[in-house]
Amino acid sequence: MIRTTVGGRAMKVIESKGVPYRELNREIRRLVAAGEDRLLLRGVNGQRYIGAGLKGMARLEIEGTAGNNLGAMMNGLSIYVHGNVQDGAGNTMSGGEIVVRGSAGDITGYAMRGGKILIQGNAGWRVGIHMKSREDQPAVLVIGGKAGDFLGEYMAGGTIVVLGLDTPLHQERESANPLIGNYLASGMHGGTIYIRGRIPAWQIRGQVQTGLTTPEESPPLWNWIEQFAAGLHLDCSGLFREIFTCLMPQGARPYAHLYDHSA
Question: What is the pTM (predicted TM-score) of this model?
Answer without folding.
Answer: 0.92
